[in-house]
Each structure stands twice: as C-alpha cells, then as structure tokens.
Amino acid sequence: MIRRPFTDHAPDAMPMPGLNPYVAEHASFGREILPATEALSWKDRWSEWFGRTAPLHLEIGSGNGFYLSGMAAQHPEADWVGLEIRYKRVVLAARKLRGLGLTNACVVRFDATHLHQLFPVGSLAGVHINHPDPWARDKQAKHRLIGREFLELLAPLMHRGAELRLKTDFPPHITALLEAAPGLFTMKAVYGDVLTEGAPWPDDVRTNYQRKADEKGVAVGAAWLVRD
Ligand SMILES: C[S@@+](CC[C@H](N)C(=O)[O-])C[C@H]1O[C@@H](n2cnc3c(N)ncnc32)[C@H](O)[C@@H]1O
Q1: For residue 104, which of 53, 48, 50 has the smallest C-alpha distance?
Q2: How far apart are CA 160 and CA 124, in angstroms?
Q3: Which one is catalytic: 8, 133, 214, 228?
Q4: For the residues 12-32, what does the mean pLDDT come to?
Q5: CA distances from 225 to 61, 86, 170, 186, 187 (A)
Q6: CB distance 207 to ligand 1 below 6 Å
Q7: Does 3.40.50.150 match the CATH number of domain 19-227?
Q8: Could you read off the pLDDT of 117-134 as tens digits, one per residue?
Q9: Fewest CB atoms within 10 A around its CB: which of 12, 57, 85, 98?
C-alpha cells in the first residue's frame, strides 16, 4: 500500500483544466468541502474545525452523500467526515450537506488508503463503509479495500468500543472483513440480506448503490463490528 501524502490537484495545474467542472467547484465550494491539503493540517484538531468536542464518525467512500447527510442529520450530537475520491461525488455530497444546513459534517476528497494522515490514534467513534468498490474479477481482487492491511491501518485510529459498519451487495467483502477482524474487532452482527432481515442498525440510511441493488433484486448484506 502506497503511503505518500495525499494531495488535491489545483484546478489549473491539471492537464486539461475545465474538463471536469467539478474540480473547480470542489476548490471553491466552501465549508462543506474541506480540501485535502487543509484537512491534513486539522488532523489533531477536528474538534477545533467543528467548533466543539463531539464523537467523530467517518464514512469511507461516501459517494453521492445520501448516507453522510442522512446520518449527520439524524445525529446532530456527532461530527461526520466523508472521504470520497471522485470530485463529482464530493460536490454532490457537499450540496446535500448544504441543502440540509448541516454544520456537523464535511466531505474531503481523499484516498482512504491514506486515512492515517487525517485522523490521530484513537480519535474515531465510528466508521461506516457502504458498498466499497467490488473489484469483482480475481485479477482485480488486489484493489479491494477490505482486508487485513486496511483494517490494521484503520483499527488504531478508532477508540475501544467504536463501531465499524459495512453494507455491501458483494458478499466477498463481508467474508474478507470477518476473516481480517480477529485481534482488532469483534463481530456484533452479520446480515445476509438487510431487506428481508430488517435494517442492520436502527438509524440506517439507504445509499445510492444500495437502492440500485434493491432495484435489481440483489441482496445487500451487512456486518457490524466493534473495536477491541
Ligand atoms: C460503489 S461506490 C459506493 C458509493 C456510496 N457509498 C453508496 O453506497 O452509494 C464506491 C465509492 O467509493 C469511492 N472510493 C473508491 N476507492 C476509494 C478510496 N480509496 N478512497 C475514497 N473513496 C474511494 C468511489 O469513488 C465510490 O464513490
């Protein structure tokens, strides 16, 4: 896993500035988008950035932001950071946060494989991963996020008892999570199909990819773990 500092491109330093309009919108959006270079400098001071001390939750791969905005709205007592690698999705998520007037959440365009650069040891109260990219073919499996190497990076950033929640329509992710967890996390519950078995957690929010899976009749499973 490469661990060089992660940085954003300045819009006019990109090979074809203007090709992706979301790059410029990302740079000038305002409070709901925290540029990566700035986010790095808040690593040990998230409570200062949010202006209060509150449990800090992270969503990895927040996509269009349905879950991030929904959870931040349901949990005003907590602060929420979404990490997402694609500019357009960062902007779409930020628009949802702004539309709901949420000040307890922000989104950072950041590669989750570098997240130790953003959060200090023991700082996270919860980590939420919804539909991580499947990289379904055997040849692509090395790109999958969920595995022992990633959990070893993530677990130290979470405090004891912090929750790790995964939803996915790709069952190998659940298997990989459970296989990688021993010594770092304890399993609380596993669901094969959240539609028929009920929402995995009382405050669940359906994501964009979850809706697509539901529409195709593909089961969405979930795993709920607790940091040892
Ligand atoms: C299949 S989509 C799911 C999006 C959303 N969570 C949902 O359930 O609708 C996976 C998301 O993870 C993002 N992603 C993939 N690798 C990432 C990484 N290393 N760091 C941050 N985000 C990443 C992708 O850009 C994409 O938006």
Answers
A1: 50
A2: 9
A3: 133
A4: 83
A5: 18, 27, 18, 5, 4
A6: yes
A7: yes
A8: 999 999 999 999 999 999
A9: 12
